[in-house]
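step=encode ok
step=design start
structure_in=
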C-alpha cells in the first residue's frame, strides 16, 4: 500500500493510546463494527507493540499502524510487530532517510512549508498535519494548497465531531485523525459498544450534506 492508499482506507483514523494489550482485539472489532477499518496505535504506552501484534495477527480486515514513532528503532520495532504503516508527529532527516527505503508507508508530521519541502526531498508527499488546530486548521490547509498542490494531508490534533466535515471538504485532505473516537478512558473501561456507536455517528455525519 502507498501512504495515500493508507489514508484513503477511511475518512477517520482513530488515534489510540492503549494500556492493556489484551483489549486491542476487542477494540479493533468495535471499530470495524462501527465502519472504521483502520487504526493508529501510538507507541505512547508500553502495551502498544503487543497491541499492534495482536491486531495484525488476528483481526482480518483491520489496517493497523503504529503512531508516535519518533526514531528509526521504533519504526523497525513497529514493522516487526506487524504494523502496516507508520505515522510520526514530525520527522528527522535520519528517520526520513531510513524510512524512505522501507516497504511500509511512512506518514510524517509537518506543520510548516519548510518541513514539507524537506520531506519532499526524501520523496514524501503525504503528511500528517500536526497539531492541526494549533497550526491554523483549515486555513493552513488552504494556504498550503497553493505552493504544494500535490501534497496530501491527514490533519490531526484538535479534530472532533464539530470540525471534521470542514477538514474533509478540503481538496488536499484525505482523512482526519483523532483520539475522540476511542479515548483512553473508554478503552480502559472496555466501552466497546459506545466506541462502535461513536464511529458510526462520525461516519454518518459525513453522509449528511
Ligand atoms: C495525535 O498524536 O495524533 C494527537 O494526539 C491526536 O490529537 P487529539 O487528541 O486532539 O485527537
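sequence_out=
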Amino acid at each position: 500500500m502507498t501512504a495515500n492508499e493508507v489514508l484513503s482506507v477511511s475518512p477517520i483514523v482513530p488515534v489510540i493510546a492503549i494500556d492493556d494489550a489484551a483489549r486491542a482485539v476487542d477494540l479493533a472489532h468495535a471499530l470495524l463494527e462501527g465502519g472504521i477499518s483502520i487504526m493508529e496505535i501510538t507507541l505512547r504506552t508500553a502495551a502498544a507493540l503487543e497491541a499492534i501484534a495482536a491486531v495484525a495477527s488476528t483481526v482480518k480486515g483491520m489496517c493497523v499502524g503504529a503512531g508516535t514513532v519518533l526514531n528509526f528503532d521504533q519504526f523497525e520495532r513497529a514493522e516487526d510487530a506487524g504494523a502496516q504503516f507508520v505515522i510520526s508527529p514530525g520527522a528527522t532527516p535520519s528517520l526520513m532517510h531510513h524510512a524512505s527505503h522501507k516497504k511500509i508507508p511512512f506518514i510524517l508530521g509537518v506543520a510548516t512549508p519548510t518541513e514539507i519541502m524537506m520531506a519532499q526531498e526524501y520523496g514524501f508527499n503525504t503528511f500528517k498535519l500536526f497539531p492541526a488546530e494549533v497550526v491554523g486548521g483549515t486555513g493552513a490547509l488552504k494556504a498550503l494548497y497553493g505552493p504544494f498542490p500535490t501534497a496530501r494531508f491527514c490533519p490531526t490534533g484538535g479534530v472532533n465531531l464539530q470540525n471534521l466535515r470542514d477538514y474533509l471538504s478540503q481538496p488536499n485532505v484525505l482523512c482526519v485523525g483523532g483520539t475522540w473516537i476511542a479515548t483512553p478512558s473508554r478503552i480502559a473501561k472496555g466501552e466497546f459498544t459506545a466506541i462502535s456507536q461513536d464511529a458510526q455517528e462520525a461516519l454518518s455525519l459525513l453522509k449528511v450534506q
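step=design ok
step=annotate ok -> The chain is about 40% helix and 15% strand.
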